[in-house]
Each structure stands twice: as C-alpha cells, then as structure tokens.
Amino acid sequence: MSPSAAPHAWRLSVAPMMDWTDRHCRYFHRLMSRHALLYTEMVTTGALVHGDVERHLRFNVEEHPVALQLGGSEPADLAHAARLGERWGYGEINLNCGCPSERVQRGAFGACLMNEPPLVADCVKAMVDAVAVPVTVKHRIGIGRSEEYGFVRDFVGTVAEAGCRVFAVHARNAWLEGLSPKENREIPPLRYDVVHRLKAEFPQLVITINGGLATDAAVRQALDGGLDGAMIGREAYHNPWWLARWDALYFGEPDAGLTREGIEDAMVDYMAREAALHGTPWSAIARHMLGLRNGLPGARRWRQVWSDHRLKHLPAHEVLAIARTPLREPAAVVQDAPEPAPAAAS
Question: Which of 99, 112, 123, 164 is catalytic?
C-alpha cells in the first residue's frame, strides 16, 4: 500500500478495537469483504520487546490487507516493533495517538501523545526510516474540552513533516480525565467538519474519518465530501453483515452472492482448523460472529447456542448443527449432548 493508492487502500477500513479485532475477528470480517483494510488491536512496544512476539503478531494470510497498530512513545522501541511487523508481513504500521484509557496514559502513549507533536514526529521518523511499508497515525481532533482547530492542525503538520502521509482522524476530542474509554467514544461531541477542514488544508495527505459512522449514508457523505476514506468501529463489530455490501458499494466489485449460512460454515471450518493447529477453543472465535444474524427470526436463540458454555466440549460442527435446529431449546439440546470424558490425572 502507498499513499498514491489511497482511493482504494484506505477507502474503507475496520478500526483497531482492543479485545475485539484479534486475528479471529479479522478472519471473520475478511470473509465478507475482500478489500476493506483490517487493523489489529493495539500492540504495545513493550509486549514485542519483552513478550511473546509470535502470540502478538501471528495472523492468517487470508486477512490481507491487514495493518498493525502499535502503542508506544520511544522511537527506538517503535522502530524495532515496526521492523517486526514488516517482517511478519503486515502491510502498514499505525501509531496509536487516540486511545484515552488511564492504562495507556500511564504508559505515556495513546491520546496524550497529541500534547507532544515533536515526540510523535520523532517516533514516526524512526519507523519510516526502519520500514518500507506505510507508517500511519490514528488520532483525535483534540485533547480535553478545548475545541481550538489550531491544535490538531499543528499536530498533523508536524507529524507530516516527519514522513507520515496517512492520518485516521477520530472526529472527537479525547477527555483524559473523568471519562471511561467507552464514554470517550460517546460523550465528546462529534465534529466531522474539523476532519474536512484538515483535508482542505492538507490536500496532499490521505485523511480518513472515524467516529460514529454507522450507515451507508454516513459513509457516502464522508467520501463524497472529499475525504479519502472512512474507518468503521463498533458498528462493523456489532452488525458485521454490513461488510458483505462494502465491496460492491465502495470498491466497484460485482455482488459476490454471499450468504450468512455460507459465512457461518466457513467460520466453523476455521474453528476446526484452529482447534487442530493451535488448540483454540471454538468459543474464542464464535464470540466475534454473534451479530451475524442480527434482525433475523431466531437470531436470539442462535446467539444463545454459540455462546453457551455448556457446549464447549463439543466440536464446532456439532454446535453448528444445534444452532441450526430451530425447534429445540438450547437447554434440551444440552441435556442430550454427551458429557466430556474425565480429564486424565496429571
């Protein structure tokens, strides 16, 4: 990916979301859209410098195009983490300058980095010098209650001079005190006009918008208004079937004829593969697809089956059969299911 490919590469993406956009979630989303850019959860530099690199960076080749989001504020550590990301095959390295959580603030990164544009510029330059893939930044439009446009304008200008050409802009301020991360996604007002103003002032940069986009009309308004892309967060996770329309609507692809049943079948095959290769329980994967049948008759019972802890001992294909048995209650099915064999003594 390169900025010159912006109309396609960053046109539509699924935002990085902690505890949600793991490799299983990304595999699921990729089944519905071939072209949407998928982001990892934020991975801290400390986790890569001192932790299990494979656990944090392993992903499925089917996920491409996929970007790695990093959290950190030490240029040398970020350069090292970026090299690892490139080596593992990620097509983009993204720096988190938008997360407002107290834990992230204690690590002196995330949204609080917006108060230190020269440091962010140093971090970006270190990564740009270390890798050949694009280095991008995700950030807010401000910190605290101040709505001064000059703050975000100067941040983007300073970071762009260090070599960043792609900015994903969450169109809310980050209030670093008094709000939880969830409240920070809901309470600070959305100000889309600020993002459009940034694009007008920096036409040479790729500017994508994030925050509160939940309908095709909202996405179209952003794209038709001159922005280079839209980044979708919670709505993509809670209503994933929306992604099945994205390739046709936003990338000029013919309708692929996807069905929810076909997606579910593919996910169950993936669950079986993951269980065989890595010992991954199907429940760790199924949690990401619970919104697949939203709005359809029987969706509630279907979700109950796929989230029923009493079925965890069954193979995923057997759980699929139960989930598609419309006239039986989950409790009755569980009573009929065989008990797991006793664990061997250690």
Answer: 99
Total domains in the chain come to: 2
Q: What domain range includes position 323?
A: 260-334
Q: 């979708």: which residue's tokens?
A: 232
- Could you tell me the CATH number of the domain that includes residue 269? 1.20.120
Are residue 313 and residue 196 in the same domain, yes or no?
no
In a domain? residue 345: no
Q: What angle do CA 249, 254, 257 make, to 5 degrees?
A: 100
Amino acid identity, residue 324? R
Residues 39 and 188 in one domain: yes
99 annotated active-site: yes
Q: What gap in Å lies between CA 13 and CA 243, rounded to an integer?
A: 10
Would residue 278 count as lying in a domain?
yes
- Give 133-173 pLDDT, tens digit per residue: 999 999 999 999 889 999 999 999 999 999 999 999 999 99
pLDDT at 178: 72
What pLDDT score was predicted for residue 107? 58
Measured distance CA(38)–CA(10) in Å, rounded: 10
The owner of tokens 């919670």 is 234
Residues 181 and 271 in one domain: no
Query: Both tokens of residue 299?
Result: 């969706």
- Cross-strand bridge partners of residue 43: 70
Task: Give residue-wise pLDDT tens across range 97-131.
Answer: 998 776 665 656 788 999 999 999 999 999 999 99
Instruction: Give the amino acid at 228.
Output: D
> Distance from first CA to last CA of the chain, Å, rounded?
51
Report CA 39 to chain centroid distance, whole Å. 4
**pLDDT < 70: residue spans in the chain:** 1-7, 102-108, 326-346
Q: Please report the pLDDT score of residue 340 as a whole number.
A: 41
Q: Look up the pTM and report it.
A: 0.90
Among the candidates 221, 250, 279, a domain finishes at 250
Q: Is residue 341 part of a domain?
A: no
- Who's near 173: CB < 8 A, 6+ residues apart? 140, 141, 142, 143, 144, 145, 146, 147, 188
